[in-house]
Amino acid sequence: MVQVGKAAPEFTLASTKGATSAKDLGKEIALSDYRGKWLVFFFYPLDFTFVCPTEITALSDRASEFQEFDCEILGCSTDSVFSHWAWLNTPREKNGIAGTQFPLVSDFTKSVARAYGVLDEKSGVAQRGLFIIDPDGVLKYAVVTDDNVGRSVEETLRVLQALQTGGLCPAEWKPGKALLQKA
Fold it and tell me: What is the pLDDT of residues 56-113, one digit of tens each?
C-alpha cells in the first residue's frame, strides 16, 4: 500500500504525450521519467464525466505555475488512451478538456490505481486521488476525496510550495509567511 514518506509505486503506462493523432497514441510514461522533478500525479474516475473536466481544466489552466516550481502534472484513469484522446479533442463547452497542458495516462489494467490505493474494486474505476512525489521518487502528499468533490488547485499548489520549503509549515501557511522553528 502507498505510504507518505516511502517510495512512490513505480509505473509505466501508455499515454497521450506528444500525440498529434490517434495513430501515435500510447507513448509510455514511467514514474522514473520524472526523477529530478516534482510530480503531481492524480487519478480521476472516468473520461466524459461531470466533476473530472473541471479539475483537469483547472489544473491545466495553472500548469505554468506548477512548472515555475519545477513540477510536472500527470493525470490517470482506468480509461483507454483512445478515450483520453477523444476527450482531449472535445471542446470545453461540450464537457471536453481540449487544450490540456499535460498528458493523460491509461491504467487500463488497473494495477497502478490498485498500487496507489485508489481503485474501487467493485466498479473498476479509480477514486479521486492526488499524490505529490518529490524529485527522488518519494511520496510526500496524498489525498483521496469522494467522487462528488473536486480537488482544489490552489491547495495543491500551496502544499507543493510548503513541501519545497523543507521547513515546518503551520496550518494555513502560505508562501512568504514564516516557518516554525524547532525548539
Answer: 999 999 999 999 999 999 999 999 999 999 999 999 999 999 999 999 999 999 999 9
> Going along 78-169, which residue ranges are E strands?
104-106, 119-120, 125-126, 128-133, 139-145
Residue type, 44: Y
Residues in contact with 48: Cβ distance below 8 Å, sequence separation at least 6, in sequence order: 83, 87, 90, 95
Q: Per the structure block, which three cell numbers stand in for 171?
A: 496550518
CATH annotation of 12-165 = 3.40.30.10
Query: What is the distance between the alpha carbons of residues 14 and 105, in angstroms, rounded to a whole number?
Result: 6
Domain ranges in the chain?
12-165
Which of 121, 168, 167, 117 minimizes the C-alpha distance to 139? 117
Q: Say what the pLDDT of residue 145 is.
A: 93
Q: What backbone torsions phi and psi does residue 63 show, to the nearest 5 degrees?
A: -55, -35
C-alpha to C-alpha distance for 175 and 163, rounded to whole angstroms? 11
Which residues are marked as active site?
A: 52
